[in-house]
Amino acid sequence: MAPRTMLAAALLMTSYLAGPTTAMISSGRPGYGFIGYGIKMYDPPCAYGCQGSFGNPLLCSDDGSHSDEMGDMDMKARDIVLWKLEQWWQLNVAGRSVVQPVPKYSYQEALDQVVAPPNATTPSDEPLTGVSLADEETYLATYNGDYTFELSDAKSARYGIVVLVTECAIPIGLSFLRFAPFPRAFVSRFNARFVDPPLFGSRHRVPLMNTAFVPTRGQSFFIAYIILINVILSAAGYRMSWPNSWWTNNSQQVVEYIANRTGVLSLANLAVLTLYAGRNNFLLWMTNWSQSTFLLLHRWVAVICVLQACIHSALYLQMYTHNGNDYAAESKLSYWYWGIISTLAMVVVLPMSMLQFRQKLYEAFLAAHFMLALLAGVAYYYHIVYRFQRQWGYETWIYIFFGIWAFDRLIRVIKMARHGLRIARVTIIDEDYVQLSVRDVSASGHAYLYFPTLTWRVWENHPFSVATSLLSAAAPVSQEHLSGNRTLEKSLEATTVALDNGSKSGSQRSATTTPRSQHHDLGLTFFVRTHTGTTKLLRARKAVPVLVEACYGGSHSSGLSGSDLGSYARLLCIAGGVGITAIMPVVSDHHGSRVVYWGARSQALVDAVHSTWDTALTGVDLNVVVGERLDVETILEQELRNETHVQTSIAVVVSGPASLADAVRIAVARHARMADAAVITFVEESYSW
Question: To 10 degrees, the CA torsion angle through 107, 109, 112, 115?
Fold first, then answer.
């Protein structure tokens, strides 16, 4: 480009000069959106380059009068139209403050007053009182600094949007594959090989060395994408330029670009991990992925988010301590210590989220997790606002974060308010279990229950499967028709129990029921295994006030097939303990062949469940084992052995302890891989934390 000249009088006529900024604090007009998406930093760059080339003092009289000598701002860039220069002139020639004087002359009017093109530059230490050429080297360095910095930050915004959008869109896209006309047998074998099994070994729900959960192969593919996209976008797309007024060498450019990029990506991932953790996550409504999957992804994205925040902070610390900057002065500024607070809050969250801590101090973990995450978001906001005064839209990421968080909490409150405060009747089943009955409430799937009078921690809530939405108003009295049309494996015979008013039998029974002359009221039943926390306090109460937040879950979809379980000819359910409560609605909604295997800890629990579930047992082949573990291998071999070579469809649903769920997962995947005609799908009904 040709040498640039500055119209000094245009600055004089404003009688205003923006003073130097303090350290790294920048001020200006608020922007809306992101850089490159609604916000321009230095556009057109040649105008800012020319303006930035002049550091000369101006001589302004006390009355605001100005010299009549006009200079020329010769910006004859072929790609810049006049209106853009006029707009820049009007808004920025005197400065970028929120309240800014307006130039007396427009850009075109100022050009019209130029008598002759300038032919010399004015030394930087002399007042600028007339027409002057811009120093070519200074102009080029300023142009390069402004242009490449905006280019880098625009790419950071673009890459942040890519992270946010793809980490939401890919689960939706993959879930929509269930509507594609793939052969069901192919989908069954594909899931058995590439989706359902653990990435390695035989553990998924059971933690590895009691420290971390091994993702499934399907989850691992997406986790790999999340890691790769964040690494690539953190390292790619940088453009260096020289000479450059912003830095003294290229290494400084690289360091600051990476610091800014990782800061933006950390903010984008903060929004993503908040979405993944929410109960009212729109991805749960639009996909067939479980909440357990999203909570697993939440933990992985959180680690990446914290690492990016640490890199951002460490690189800026390195720049200020090793590049001759005034670290002592900078570290006392508000934006600096708010940035430290945000990074530290995120760093502290990680060790407190370790499985061992969650297992031993779960309620403390939840409270600390919530407070530290909120502190990190608030500190992020003040870090950005104190640093940039809302000019460049970085705070938009925080608005997204708080919007997602607030939406989830708002829906929670609405769901609780919908039912109001209720009274739950507590019935002790045995030393391990209690039954909760809440009248005049209807729900399905699972619900979160709040017990505001049990402890001072009124915000605590716990998830429970809804066993039934009907409460018995009279004692169940009827005749059961039990047929022994199947033979139980000998390893199970000694402890098999038929649900015949609590009686025991040495052979497997197929339990069917006829309609009972019994009245039922609207209400919810929950079976709760009491642990050492809040749930243990229930045992001392006969009734307790409760807030019900429902409904959640209950879609009963699986893998790439994504079909409702009702589309499968046979339903095979395996439950352990109170996991039977998650199985009950699945069995009740299915109208084909239904087989249920249930391993219960006590006969008292079996009797209690039977009294609430009796109307759903019609046509169910029910097999109960009390006091022993279910022999998963034997059960599945018996149930699937003769089905893998015929054209049928079987859905296997498991709910119960982690070890039981993993055993069923591995066995079903093995049988599904070997099937050459049958369609076999696996569904796990479980909570994750």
Answer: -80
